[in-house]
């Protein structure tokens, strides 16, 4: 496995965020992290490495609050310009390969907010654990903006995800008809951890996530 290239992603003149590019020849994913951990979290790194093994390049990056060492994110809409800059970087480097955008939890939500506001120019959006609602407060209003996107929507979610009750997520995905698809990872929670008694490991679940994303992107 080749080491990821360290890159700088220009957001505004004089303002950039750090990123990591891991190459692949069959497609590109601008991959945003979730609320609680940055691009070097074990999940993000493991997913990027598995996608590279499957031919998909990834551009991971840190939102500014992570780079500044702050534990809590600002409101998701304020992160949209950074996501948009990362997608521009991925498009510039893709060399004709198909480019998708998305991310883990909050990162995927920010990508969809960006595309709903103004088209990102990507082939589609992927959501790795879409945070449909806060834990214990089932609702679907966090998905309302998805109606303003126009690209394919691809969701992968664990059946034990407390931030996406299965029936609500399935109904949300179904409401978008043929342009949306959902893959459920049996026994996985929001972080794609599985119970030991299931006979599977977290690595198995992450392999399934990577297989699913690579199949969509390629």
Defining key terms:
single chain, Rossmann fold, eight-stranded mixed beta sheet, 6 helices, 8 strands, globular
Description:
There is one protein chain. The chain is of the alpha/beta class and about 220 residues long. The chain has a single domain, classed as 3-Layer(aba) Sandwich (Rossmann fold), CATH 3.40.50.1820. The chain contains six helices and eight strands; from the N terminus they run βββαβααβαββαβα. It has an eight-stranded mixed β-sheet with strand order 1-2-4-3-5-6-7-8, sandwiched between helices. α1 links the parallel β3 and β4. The longest helix has 16 residues, at about 200-215. It is globular. The protein starts with a strand and ends with a helix. The relative contact order is 0.15. The mean pLDDT is about 95.
């Amino acid at each position: 496995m080749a080491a990821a290239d360290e890159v700088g992603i220009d957001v505004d003149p004089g303002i950039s965020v750090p990123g990591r590019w891991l190459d692949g020849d069959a497609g590109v994913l601008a991959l945003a992290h979730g609320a609680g951990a940055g691009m070097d979290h074990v999940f993000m790194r493991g997913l990027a490495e598995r996608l590279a093994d499957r031919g998909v390049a990834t551009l991971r990056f840190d939102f500014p609050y992570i780079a500044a060492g702050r534990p809590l994110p600002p409101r998701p809409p304020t992160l949209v310009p950074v996501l948009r800059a990362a997608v521009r970087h991925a498009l510039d480097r893709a060399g004709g390969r198909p480019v998708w955008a998305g991310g883990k939890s909050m990162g995927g939500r920010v990508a969809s907010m960006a595309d709903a506001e103004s088209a990102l120019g990507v082939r589609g959006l992927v959501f790795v654990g879409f945070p449909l609602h806060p834990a214990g407060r089932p609702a679907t209003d966090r998905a309302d903006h998805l109606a303003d996107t126009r690209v394919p929507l691809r969701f992968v979610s664990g059946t034990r995800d407390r931030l996406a009750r299965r029936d609500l997520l399935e109904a949300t995905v179904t409401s978008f008809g043929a342009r949306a698809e959902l893959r459920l990872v049996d026994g996985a929670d929001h972080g794609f951890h599985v119970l030991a008694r299931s006979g599977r490991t977290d690595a198995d679940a992450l392999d399934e996530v990577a297989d699913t994303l690579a199949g969509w992107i390629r």
